[in-house]
Structure formats: structure tokens, C-alpha cells
Fold this sequence. Notes:
Elements: H1 14-35, H2 42-51, H3 67-75, H4 80-88, H5 97-103, H6 108-118, H7 125-136, H8 145-155, H9 162-182, H10 186-190
Amino acid sequence: MIQEFLPKNWESNPQNQKSFAHSKTVANAAQKIASLTHNLDAKKAYDYGLMHDIGKFYLTKNEMYKHPRVGYELLKESHPDIAKICITHPFPDFDSYDHILHYHKNDKAEAQKTFDILSKIEKTDYMELIQLCDKLSRLDDYISLDGKVKWYLETYNLDPDELVSQYVDRLTKTKKKFDTMTGTDIYDILGIKE
């Protein structure tokens, strides 16, 4: 499915290759987890995971923070469910304007566009699944939530703050939800060592 939405010559950009590898890792995680639940379709979860970052293929490195909305705009007419995955995947608390503004590097116009779209969307299990799998996935393996936060803070030279704490709390609740839905620890499913 993703092939029909990728721009020509996308493979020539190393950043696109990384985005594609990450998307496949997210898709595999989503498929594994969904296959162990009673109410989620594993194929649909795979497709959602594969498509969640499609907006990145249309942006420069400095514009990457806009990829959720770009993916949404690209797919909203032809695949509205996947479009909603694109716009929601970075925002476990998508009713928090502060989180959205922080993600958008204080670009108030972009944050407001995203917030306006998110305010009309009702959260689903698939959205939460892709949010979780996105945070647990690297290029070709998986990392714990604590490990991902530590990597993020170190990579971007940030200090932990209240927004980070709220973000981790929300993702931890989502992980526990899927632990319950699958009957096993998500980390065990994905081979994550804490």
C-alpha cells in the first residue's frame, strides 16, 4: 500500500530510507500486538504502522515536525482512517495544546492547524497502538519507553520537565492497556529488555 504514496526517487534520500525502515519496524510491532488481541485486525494494524510517517517523505529535515499534518492532508480523502493515524501518532495526549506546540518547535501556526484537526478526532485503540509502537521502535529493533525518553533527552540535549513526565505517564498507561489486551507484557512480545 505504501508504494502508491511514496514520491518518485524516494530511495535516493538516506533520511527517507531511515523513515521507511522505522515504519516497517512499527508495522511489525503493531501486527504482532494486534494479532494477540480479540478486537484488533493484525493486517490493518500493519498497514497503519507502515503508513504512519508517510508525511516525512515530502519534507526536508528541518520541516519534519510537520509530517503528521502533511500525512493527514495526503490521505484524508482516499484513506481517512490512515490519515487519522498520521495526525495522531506523535500525540498520546492530543488534547494538550502544550504538547502539540512543543512537538512543533513553537511553530504556533503549525501547532494550531494540527490542534484544530485533532480536536475533531475520537481516539481509537488503533491510534493508541501506533502511538505506542512508534515510541518503542527504532530503525530495526525495539527499545523500552524509559530507554526512548533517555535517548530523546540526550540526543536533543534536553532536561526532563513536566511535559515529558506527562507524556511518559500517558504512554505507560497505553502500554499497560495493551499488556492487558494481549494478556502478556508488550516488552516480551517485542523482545525488549528493560
